[in-house]
Amino acid sequence: MDALDVARWQFGVTTVYHFLFVPLTIGLSVLVAILQTMWHRTGNERYLKLTKFYGKLFLINFAMGVVTGIVQEFQFGMNWSDYSRFVGDIFGAPLAIEALVAFFLESTFIGLWIFGWDRLPKRAHLASIWAAAIGTNLSAYFILAANSFMQNPVGFRINPDSGRAELTDFPAVLTNKVALITFPHTLAGSFLVAGSLVVAVGLYHVIRNRDSADTGAYRFATKFGSWVVLVASAAVLFTGDIQGKIMTDVQPMKMAAAEGLYTTESPASFSVLTIGSLDGSREVFALKIPYLLSYLGTGDPNGTVHGINDLQAQYATQYGAGSYTPIIPVTYWSFRFMIAFGMAAAAIALLVLWSQRKGRTPRSRWLLRAGLAMPVLPLLANSFGWIFTEMGRQPWIVFGEMLTRNGVSRSVSLTEVLTSFTAFTLIYATLAVIEVKLLLRYAKAGVPDVSEQHPIDDTHDDAERPLAFAY
Amino acid sequence: MDLTTIWFLLVAVLFTGYFILEGFDFGVGMLLPVLGRNDRERRVLINTIGPVWDGNEVWLITAGGAMFAAFPEWYATLFSGFYLPLLLILLALIARGVAFEYRHKRPEASWKRRWDAAIVVGSLLPAILWGVAFANILRGVPLDADHEYVGGLLDLLNPYALLGGATTLALFLTHGAVFLALKTTGDIRERAGALAVRLGVGAAVLAVGFLTWTLSIRSSAAAAVLAVGAALALLGGLAAAKVRREGWAFTGTAVAIGLAVATLFAALFPNVLPSTLDAAGTLTATNAASTPYTLKIMTWVAVIFTPVVLAYQGWTYWVFRKRIGVANIPQH
Predict the structure, then answer these.
(1) ipTM of the predicted structure?
(2) Which residues on A lie below 8 Å from B54 (Cβ)?
(3) Cβ partners under 8 Å of residue A265, min gap 6
(4) What sections of the protein cross the membrane (chain A) (predicted)?
(5) How far apart are CA B11 and CA B126, in angstroms?
(6) How far is the CA of B94 from the CAs of A25, A427, B69, in angstroms?
């Protein structure tokens, strides 16, 4: 074990952890904004209750997303300083713009929304949650544009004197075809998580809390969330399909690694299950659907999909001797888990909708169990998606331009990076336990009573009136 | 003025803004057990910064991003070189950020006590470590000809840097107390006002000592003027605090912190991270910078969006301008 390995593990752990909170922030900010807009339009208290209820869950999660995000920005400089030097001219710009354009918007307006219930006119307060939601989603765009440069570097040249990448075309970086497709795919994946949480919590109260006066609100939430999940899963499939074709084009090795496809095939069949030999150089057993991989990768059922061994040989000629193959079991299985977990959530959403058809009330314990599992499934799908996309790029940190092992900080010792990895793992694990417990506690507590909101209290003068919300 | 100078100024402005804004919320965090005698009082303190602390912290994220984009070499060398202090700062910011949000989520006293500790330690560590870090940036650190940091942790803990840490600690404590006197009512306001004066005397002594030492390490006419300005602003702020002119007191400490940070950057220029070894290792605003094309794009983005950000952030402070006291704290 050396500093490089630990730095990679730390990046993996902190990034996957960060992205447990981000999808909920992205998706739920918009869903809460929609609920509040419905209250604003209809005046129906049910929507206000749901806004406050899901808003609370949103905020418990939001805090974690913010604090784990700072680590991400610092980590490039701390653990990956040679990478930062190599790409700073290009990669720094979207990060800085994200902070200035998106993150300020999100953080400032979330503060206004949390504390502004009795301080802002209703419209301005509604606009605040929308501003925060827009900031969050914009933020995702800039971060994904930065990541897409690592997958498919565009709009740059290598300075022959310094050996560094230099920006030559910024619009090209922002309109990188990988970024343009990864952004909607990530948003769809995020709404899958947010919708699933809305369903799970709603369904819990519909089934467990049957005599509640708020059953109508929960039923609405359950259906609303299920539709979000269904639309999001359609969007995930649609964007994922396009993404697969782009990947086959710009990162053929990643596609081959996703499939455990060792030799070039035309037409190529999609692997349902492939077991490779121990050294990972050939397949031992495979169950396949003919033509499907060609279609997924190229849009043509007879298209050519390059195999790992051929690409490895080609890259060795192009970039010099060495291994250019990712760890196949990791990419192969993470790709499958991503699809399976994501689609499982969609299937449960269908069941939930079916169980409530024509005003029926679902009672099944099995349905409840499935419903409660729902938010975990797309979270896993998202995590495996990121593991796939980052591990599938290996051994590159910037595809075709810089190897991961050359990006690590030379001045940082193994002890230092181990200290940091241990510290983050411990604090993250502790916070995860606390966060989940709080989420469960507030999810079980149910929608708040809103009849006493914003009382015009004549007995106190304004200076003594309690705040509508306080920490 | 060339683009690298503009970006040096912008990074300086971002860090200045960060220390002025998060300076007081670090101060409030550290004063939690001092000025908050019971849970209700502590909630008053936390709620003075509740709506704004997150927006304040984005100044750091933007400063870090701007450094990365405009001066990748500076960002890379600094962040990998100052590894353990930055790690502690990150852990502290994580703990305190979550603490603000979670503290009121359960009624148990033990729960609140733990989060209070996270807020205090999470505010204290960065308040000291930022001073240590910036003092080291100014003093210079061991860099080899490749601009790699070759020192250890102990190189960062020199007397000058420790004085820097003590100075930022004292300044932020004073700034926080002054802010609390401005934003609260009743008993807390009185105590915060009295404490601000006492803390301020210590902060003034430390700040004058630190800035004098700074100017003896490296100096320019601009830095000297800014340092004098910082000292005068702090004394003015203290005088105002003494006579309980809270708005002026806060203006004084804010300007003092701003000018003190500006002094460091003015003294540093045109270097961004001097080497104490080989002079070739020194990073300057020129050799650490991105290409003119990147800087030009970033300049446009900054020119367009900075005023917008300042406008809405300023508006937030206006929306939450009212003082709060124990009577305003709801039961839940």
Answers:
(1) 0.91
(2) 66, 107-108, 110-111
(3) A293, A294, A304, A305, A307
(4) 20-41, 53-71, 91-115, 127-150, 187-207, 227-246, 333-354, 366-388, 408-434
(5) 19
(6) 17, 9, 24
